[in-house]
From TrEMBL:
It is found in: Cytoplasm. Plays a role in the regulation of phosphate uptake. This is Phosphate-specific transport system accessory protein PhoU. Residues 16-104, 119-203 form the PhoU domain. PANTHER family: PHOSPHATE-SPECIFIC TRANSPORT SYSTEM ACCESSORY PROTEIN PHOU. The gene is phoU. Homodimer.
């Protein structure tokens, strides 16, 4: 019975890895589309959102099957319940990568002319998403905590990008809506960082039973 359960847990891990890879790809494509003006990549990021939604349904179904059929306890229960929480954040990451791409598709944007740090912000959030999933699969508490700490880096980069955009508007108010569109995109990246932080916090809970400083398990 335990062997079968372990096989199903391994299947859950593999499904989460696949969903995480889809999220990473969506963000990477959305970012490259933004920085290089590549609308083909933007379209791929939008298409990936549907795959991420489907992956969420598959992982949710597997988690519920494990809960109902295997009746796990203690650490196993925390691992499965954490996965259920994580996929919600992963699905929202896919939504926000799609939102960025839709803006790239609909308006002309030149980040290099307005916010030179938006690329740094994008790369930082991709790293957070990758590391948060790796931390879950490897049960790496130290890596999960580094992701949580990295959210401050993304938040500070958002403030830097915001300052760059507002300074540009003061100098040249006739630039129109492009700086405001880029500010919205920067906000999407900040939210992606928040979701990666949420994932890392659930990884911490799955390992320790502690979530946000409170004993839950």
């Amino acid at each position: 019975m335990r062997n079968r359960f372990d096989e199903q847990l391994e299947s859950l891990n593999n499904s989460l890895i696949r969903m995480g890879a889809l999220c990473e790809s969506a963000i990477a494509n959305a970012t490259k589309a933004l920085l290089e003006g590549d609308r083909t990549l933007a379209g791929r990021a939008i298409e990936a959102d549907s795959e991420i939604d489907q992956a969420e349904r598959e992982v949710e179904s597997l988690c519920l099957k494990l809960l109902l059929q295997q009746q796990p306890v203690a650490r196993d229960l925390r691992q499965i319940s954490s996965a259920l929480k994580m996929i919600t954040d992963m699905e929202r990451i896919g939504d926000q990568a799609s939102d960025i791409s839709e803006m790239v598709m609909s308006v002309e944007l030149d980040p290099a002319a307005h916010a030179i740090h938006i690329g740094d912000m994008a790369r930082a959030t991709i790293g957070m998403v990758t590391d948060s999933i790796d931390a879950y699969v490897r049960r790496d508490l130290a890596l999960a905590r580094r992701v949580i700490e990295a959210d401050d880096v993304v938040d500070n980069l958002f403030l830097t990008v915001k300052s760059e955009l507002l300074a540009g508007l003061k100098i040249n108010p006739a630039e129109g809506e492009a700086p405001l569109d880029l500010l919205m995109i920067a906000k999407y990246y900040e939210r992606i960082g928040d979701h990666a932080t949420n994932i890392a916090e659930w990884v911490e809970f799955s390992i320790t039973g502690v979530h946000k400083g409170e004993l839950l398990g």
